[in-house]
Design brief:
six-stranded antiparallel β-sheet, alpha+beta, binds methionine sulfoxide, 6 strands, about 160 residues
Length: about 160
């Protein structure tokens, strides 16, 4: 199977997750399992969602994930690659995490990372973060797949918060 066929298949399965899900949390749980199981280089897959408590700065809080336990359960918006994606609202792809001073280490095996923001009505509400044990694991078609998955979750949240 070519990698394009594979990402197309997984994209379809991600859309099916939204049909089958009983809640946003259930959708995110299905999504991390799907991406972790089906995409061999996606060694850690997780959601961070923005928590906004009155009188405090917004913070990213770890939600559903698959992979090794991470020490980073709460990340400030001005910290890490996760904070960069959330605060700019832009996808961040890092081919070699050792070269990026923003990087917060989760596992010594991680070599590359992608973080894609999730939007609800134009506002960043969280993000989908994926780490790989391989350098430069996230090519254009991976970026498109992960952005699609983040979009599916954003649309689901938008509907459920209507
Ligand atoms: N590497 C991320 C932290 C999260 S862990 O990878 C799970 C960062 O630099 O923000």
């Amino acid at each position: 199977m070519t990698t394009t066929t594979k990402t197309e298949e997984v994209r379809k399965e991600a859309a099916e997750c939204a049909q089958a899900a009983t809640s946003a949390q259930d959708l995110m749980s299905r999504m991390v399992k799907l991406l972790h199981e089906r995409m061999l280089k996606y060694n850690w897959v997780g959601f961070y969602m923005i928590e906004q408590e009155p009188g405090r700065s917004p913070i990213l809080v770890l939600g559903e994930f698959q992979g090794a336990m991470t020490p980073h359960k709460r990340i400030q918006l001005n910290q890490g690659i996760c904070g960069a994606a959330a605060s700019t609202g832009k996808t961040v792809v890092v081919d070699d995490v050792a070269q990026d001073p923003r990087y917060l280490a989760c596992s010594i095996e991680t070599k590359s990372e992608i973080v894609v923001p999730i939007f609800v009505r134009g506002e960043v509400v969280g993000e989908l973060d994926i780490d790989s044990h391989f350098q430069a694991a996230f090519k254009d078609e991976d970026r498109a797949l992960v952005e699609f998955c983040a979009g599916v979750v954003g649309q689901y949240l938008e509907k459920s918060r209507a």
